[in-house]
Amino acid sequence: MTNQPMAEVFGYRIDDLSDEATRHRRYRLCPFNNKVPSCTKDKAEDPLGVCSVYTGERVTITCPIRFRQDWLIVSDAADFFFAPSTKWTALTEIRLTDASGKSAGNIDIVLVAYDEQGSITDFGALEIQAVYISGNIRNPFSAYMDDPERNTALDWRGERNYPRADFLSSSRKRLAPQLIYKGGILHAWRRRMAVAVDQTFFATLPGLPSVPAEQADVAWLVYDPVLNPTSGRYQLRHAETIYTQFTPALLRITSPEPGPEDDFRVLLQRKLVEQQQRLHPSLRSSSLQDLFMSQSGDDDEEGSVAP
Length: 307
Description:
There is one protein chain. The chain is an alpha+beta fold. The protein has two domains: 6-254, no CATH class; 262-288. It is 33% helix and 26% strand. It starts with 5 loop residues before the first strand and ends with a helix.
């Protein structure tokens, strides 16, 4: 485990003191094809420039713009959406509405195919799923940015609210709603969808039922930031693609795996005993069963009918 949570700040490792890394930190620049040159995460005037965090010895991407490095996700999605000779381009942040005109959210990237006259012939949607952070990442980031050269060996162990990747919230609060609303509309239109995810996050999802690429309407594009020993930077690597059909994948992600009912009954019994002890403080736990049985007997007597 590392001494602090941040794997990348403004696109570079925190111990990178090269001219390029220093320039990106000084001017709060984003090297990953943001809509503007600077980072705009959290606050445009005071951006939270943490691109990724450590999960053990692995790196987990926490900023969706981080996935845009070299536009690898776009070309990988195009391979799934279109035939090799297709002319296509990418449009970002496209609003999607339902039948009543209400917004279902923005699609991160829409890839559109077009003919010689510039008319759209096909399209597919690419959604990017970065990972939420639990705890406070702003505090170690601010501490580091006060003096990056001095703080390359920042030690944040033992601090309150130590930030960590929150995979559970990422799937329940972000991924599942995206699939239900935006994915549901796209599926009704019979349009293909690709989801770009981090490998550490994808490993926490339940196993998805895969199908051959030609039968799929969803492609899960799984990526891993790998350290380039020459540049000293993390390079986005395409780890694998999992092909699924929309409905089975959605059901698998949104259906919890139930635990034993007996465990729940034990919890209910304990809560019931605690409640009765509050209502009847003079009784010991061993006497509560007699109380329950007497109450049950009274109910049976009141509900009985004389012959």
